[in-house]
Write a sequence for this structure.
């Protein structure tokens, strides 16, 4: 228990550091919109992006505090693998933010597209295929080795990733069509990229050419999924 409390203190301090360091100001919000294809955002668009980021940043200290109490009993404390703890917090923050975003916005001005949105409108089919392949590989590999704690971590990450993508697709429209779609794309694609990285890491293949090739492929796909967009693909 002492190790868990010590780890919780350290991770909470790190979460607060990220909270302050990454707090979304106007410059960060504008950069996010440009990265996801909104070329000429208005002040209202920047405010929408800032709200979007705040909903995720709020959870960092809370998730970093609670993570050791969940993973400690499984003997996979975050301090043993800081990268896993950070990714878990990013995925958890994204999931909680998308759950809260399912509420209809209070303001009355909303735009909507008439066509029904599907998952591949947000995430390319090839990225979904790689995500599914790495998830299955991780489950098979960890099950064969009877590493149940790691299997639980991988399963939770895969489930959370899938939920974020579905929730990003289904949540009510907020803001203009262009900005709303850009933020949906960011939620779904970042979650998919993180899911691919986690699943690929959990396969834990023996060191060698195939392991290096698999890691390189997973990282390349993850980077391609979150690569900057020149323009938001808004339906005509």
């Amino acid at each position: 228990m002492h190790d868990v409390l010590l780890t919780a203190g350290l991770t909470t301090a790190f979460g607060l550091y990220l909270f302050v360091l990454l707090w979304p100001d106007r410059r960060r919000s504008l950069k996010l919109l440009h990265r996801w294809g909104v070329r000429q955002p208005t002040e209202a668009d920047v405010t929408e992006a800032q709200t979007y980021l705040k909903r995720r940043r709020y959870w960092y200290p809370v998730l970093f505090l609670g993570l050791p109490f969940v993973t400690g009993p499984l003997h996979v404390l975050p301090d043993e693998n800081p990268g896993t703890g950070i990714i878990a917090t990013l995925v958890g923050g994204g999931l909680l933010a998308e759950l809260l975003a399912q509420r209809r916005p209070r303001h009355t001005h909303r735009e909507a597209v008439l066509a029904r949105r599907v998952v591949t409108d947000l995430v390319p089919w090839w990225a979904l295929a790689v995500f599914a392949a790495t998830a299955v590989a991780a489950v098979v590999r960890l099950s064969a080795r009877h590493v149940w704690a790691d299997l639980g971590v991988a399963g939770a990450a895969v489930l959370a990733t899938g939920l974020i993508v579905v929730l990003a697709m289904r949540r009510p429209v907020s803001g203009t069509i262009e900005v709303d779609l850009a933020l949906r794309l960011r939620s779904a694609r970042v979650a998919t990229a993180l899911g691919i990285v986690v699943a690929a890491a959990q396969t834990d293949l023996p060191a060698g050419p195939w392991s290096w090739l698999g890691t390189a492929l997973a990282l390349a796909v993850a980077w391609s999924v979150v690569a900057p967009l020149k323009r938001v693909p808004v339906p005509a």
Notes: Residues 2-105+119-225 form one domain.
